[in-house]
Write a structure and sequence with these properties.
two-stranded antiparallel ribbon, disordered C terminus, alpha/beta, 7 helices, Rossmann fold, 37% helix
Amino acid sequence: MKINNRGILRLAGLALVVFLLGACATQGPVVNKQGTLDAIQKVTILPYENMAALHGSGTSVRSPITGRAFVTGPVAARADQFLTGRLVSHVRRDTSFDIVPSRDAGAIMDGFFEHQGRDWPQRRLFARTGQRLGADAVMVGHVYRFRERTGGGAASESPSSVAFDLYLIDCRSERVLWSAFYDYTQQALSENLGGIRNFFRRGARWVTAEELATWAMEDIFDDFPRPQKKSP
């Protein structure tokens, strides 16, 4: 069977499209459901923790919940507050959970430290704190990198770079029921053809760290599992 030049070009174009679409799928956050959420009705949301402030910038740091490794970097002022605010907004909008106020969480954790010492695993500390607050589960996250671009949208000397994680922990079993993480540094299209979809989604420009984090949170909660309604 003979294939003319036009046919060859079409096949090559199709192969390129398949390659680009396959590569694009790796650009978003990674989300994992690890347990049922049917029994979860009340959640408390703890503030994001700045891991770069604790461990320094340019260091390989493991998540205290799962052990996943991240490289820390500069974290912009109030980035932890920004992420916490985005998280609260999405829980209110995209889930059926009732939010239990977390304003007393710091005092509760200090009490645990006073009586039990500071060697508790974070997962247990968060779960017990949520129980004291009257929640079924705790949402908690860490920010490892939140570097703002330098330069404008048309040209950037240093691109935005964001890395954070998020966990939903059952207060009774202390299990992680659901988790997500995002670790991304924007690249020029010439460096990463696989990012063509995100390149045009972002207006073919260099974006801010807040924009990257906002889009990541939206993607994370797009398919957030809803608890099954019980039959009457």
